[in-house]
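Most newcomers find our protein records easier to grasp once they have seen one. To make this concrete, we reproduce a full record directly below:

…
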Amino acid sequence: MTSPATPAYRRLSVEQRRGQLIEAALGLFAHRTPEDVSLDDVAGAAGVSRPLVYRYFPGGKQQLYEAALRSSAEALNRCFAEPLAGPPMERLGRVLDRYLLFVEGHGAGFSALLRGGSVVETPQTSAIVDEVRRAAAEQILLHLGVERPGLRLDMLVRTWIAAVEAASLIWLGGGRRPPAAELRDWMVDHLVALLTVTGAGDEETRRVVGRLLAQERPGGPVAALAHRLIPVVGEAAHLL
């Protein structure tokens, strides 16, 4: 009886092999924190030996983690890319759809990316996370039509990004969580509300709000929010 043939060793280029190992690591980080993932785990997931992992990542787990983090950051940055066409808040909704899909698919790896505080955190990993936040801010400002924001508007955008990150982490960890579409709509409403309130006391933001409203369509996200706010504002009318 002939014994089964041993699967042939698959030769990959250096970049292909590195990519394979990074994908294996990302798959593990999607369900476990970096502290709980060993090089043996990565080797097993990739179907290779531990020495082979070291050959491509001589810095060991730290170097592999930073490479995986960089790969996640690049994928997350791609979520922010959206053509400058159509109503701005609808564009933002599509960005958030991709963002939340990424968040849900990466689980613990996403938490590790944003939370920091990990035993494998270094200035390099912190810089990668900062780059993601900076790229997100630049994309939001691009859709707001602002190249060099003033202090108030810059703080507003960064505050909103921090709130989105916090909400995403809570959403991931919550036992009872709203559907992604509901969370997306809430995040869009949050930005509109921040812009409106800030615009009441900041001329630059007021002009931004005016431009945005001119591009929104009847029945769109901004109009829907305004409709929902009417009864809430009406309850405070006696204070005026």
User: Anything to note?
Assistant: Confidence is low (pLDDT under 50) at residues 1-9.
